[in-house]
């Protein structure tokens, strides 16, 4: 735990008593703050009170006594309208912050030189965070990973000069962290997302920009216009900017040339790393993730050999193009996290002979946006509520069957892929759908796929994240 000593002796209000909220409350108490916490869910309030956290309805509180208000990132700050607690805090002139802000203040007070890598973007945050932390750990660095992935940030070990922090930040968390100041800040990409909470794409982008604007070095993917404009704007403002691209040769920065990761310095190119043969980092999207990780790790002092070794040993993240098993020429890939068409596209673009398991609770637009990948699909196995609609979209372009259940789809796809004589065949779960018609969540769906695949006679499990 990181005791939040920056509020020692002060009174702090807190709203949101989920896992990270309770962790933050304990950190404030450990740092010497007096807190008053609340939640709209009575069960959460009861659990917090049982854990020794002082609770009370913030509607009845004297807000003039609070030095700060700590808000859970899951609670609306601005859109569709501010939560009632936010309006009370602002009316009393009380600053509204989140747990990432607490972490930043503690780092500055305790050990301002502790290397701090913060990652954001619409897509790829979790993989880039996990990959960066893995490279650092495999190189023997004292590494703490958390934030929007894994552990709540205030449950990490306290800052020390040689302790490296790798923190995934959502837009909600950045919005509550006005002093965020990473050693290296990564902005991967921007596409419309969470607009119900941010109002407009411009506002959403401006929030993401804050993370890199406060960084010693801003590492920015420039393959979309929003991020390219941010990179240009920060550079004009005198910030140190490193551009990365998964598809465009750059004059300065880092870019992908197939599976080679290249550095460009005034138009002169050299290879700094490679992804050839690294199954956990297939595809252009993972090239972008790897480029960001390479640039950040170089920034905090790693050598190229250490970075390459970390890339090669990276196991990947569960349910994100995760290799779960192989039998002869058939590879089984769990991409259960792909809950819409856009999320399924990277996996479909990464293989040539695909036995595709798709379906579930359909999202708007279906799989029509994936039509360009249909030639890669040897056969589709459709499950769940989306099966009839998906079959209509596939039509005569792709052979398909309506398997109904995931277990039947895995069994049939494995049988058909085993008969494929065209080289490596991939049984791919990349559903392009939510899971809720048949499974509690995408993690449970992915585990069901893993179990069904590895239960097939002769399939050898591939070690990786669990």
Throw out a few tags for this protein.
Protein-Tyrosine Phosphatase, Chain A, seven-stranded mixed sheet, alpha/beta, 23% strand, nine-stranded mixed sheet, UDP-N-acetylmuramoyl-L-alanine:D-glutamate ligase, 466 residues, Rossmann fold
Summarize the structure.
By secondary structure, the chain is an alpha/beta fold. The protein has three domains: 9-97, Rossmann fold; 100-313, Mur-like, catalytic domain (UDP-N-acetylmuramoyl-L-alanine:D-glutamate ligase, 3-Layer(aba) Sandwich), CATH 3.40.1190.10; 322-461, Mur ligase, C-terminal domain (Protein-Tyrosine Phosphatase, Chain A, Alpha-Beta Complex), CATH 3.90.190.20.
Describe the structure in your own words.
Helices cover 34% and strands 23% of the residues. By secondary structure, it is an alpha/beta fold. Strands 6-7-5-8-9-10-11-12-13 form a 9-stranded mixed beta sheet, sandwiched between helices. The chain has a 7-stranded mixed beta sheet with strand order 19-18-16-20-15-14-22, sandwiched between helices. A 4-stranded parallel beta sheet has the order 2-1-3-4.
